[in-house]
Amino acid sequence: MANSFYLDASALAKRYIPEKGYEQVNAILDGVPVSRIHFLNIGAGEVLSILVRRRNAATLSIANFDQAMASFNAEVVRGMGVSKASVTSRLVVTSLPFVVAHSINSTDALMLRSALAIARRLRRAGDDLVLVASDQRLLRAAQAESLTTFNPETQDHATLAALMA
């Protein structure tokens, strides 16, 4: 059995901004084959807005912002092999019940619905999916829906290593 990893935007942004949990995210992105990495395509805009906010707040220098943007574009925006789940009208409609059931925002509901579909497909092949996020509401909702989760800000490298094995 091999786990794939689905990163929300705040987790993915840790690849480009050294903040709590970035070592764990780097371990995932450097240690897992790119074909087993997933994210929601609209998450790219969220990562970009996180980078811009950090630049505007001067917590990310212009030079580091430029480097982060170049890496982000190469790895994610133009990256080959990374699975970018698309937001479709069907996904929007089928995600709406999660907003009510789990008191999560609409983007998290989209991600949860998408992750469940990917997990279902992977499980049929004997594999599984790990949702990587730091948002407690999203993590609780994913766990309630029987998804394996990993919080890079609070869980240790031993736990991650077991998930990556």
Explain this structure.
The structure is a single chain. The protein has a single domain (3-164), classed as Rossmann fold (3-Layer(aba) Sandwich). It has eight helices and five strands, in the order βααβααβααβαβα. The chain has helices spanning 9-13, 22-31, 43-56, 62-77, 89-102, 106-124, 136-144, 157-164, and strands spanning 3-7, 37-40, 83-85, 128-132, 148-150. The protein has a five-stranded parallel beta sheet with strand order 3-2-1-4-5, with helices on both faces. α7 (136-144) links the parallel β4 and β5 (148-150). α3 (43-56) packs antiparallel against α4 and α5 (89-102) packs across α6 (106-124). The longest helix is centred in the C-terminal third of the chain and has 19 residues, at 106-124.
Summarize the entry for a quick read:
The chain has 8 helices and 5 strands. The chain has 165 residues and is an alpha/beta fold.
